[in-house]
Give the backbone structure.
Amino acid sequence: MRKEDGLSIIGLILMIIVLIIVALIVVNKIFGKNGMVEKYEKSDNEYNKTEIVDKLNLVIKEKYVLDYKYATENQKDPAEYCNSESFFKYLLDSGYIEQLKDINDNLVEDQYYINTEALETDLATNEINENGSESNGTKVYKIKKIEEKYMIYFVDKYGEEEELGELVMNPEI
């Protein structure tokens, strides 16, 4: 009788060890490196990166429609109101973008911080400092003027820039 009790205890211990190993594997698949949670966060972040480009271009397109309608109703030249300078000024005046500043609070030439809160978006990365500072490891969306184009970038907490797309200043309707 003692022999059978000893075997059942050893069997129980082995079963517990196997269940612990299986549980550790499952937890690793869910929360570990390249786990399901990390993959979800990456895909959500990628979606948000394209969303910022779409939102800004939609704002420009809406402004274009309003300005074009105003110009034609008042017999004025639409080119006077529908140009990249007026659209960019509108983005600045409306608070959608701000002039980017460096650590010493100096303006950075031809670079602008995108205010995601002003875009009323549900971006996962909207924990951004005022003026786009990266001092606490936050992530920033910015616009950089390159020649005559306005390019939109995502800057991660390490300062690495990823080009997301172009701000279309002459939208097609």
Summary: The helical segments are 2-31, 36-73, 78-81, 84-93. Residues 36-73 form the longest helix (38 residues).
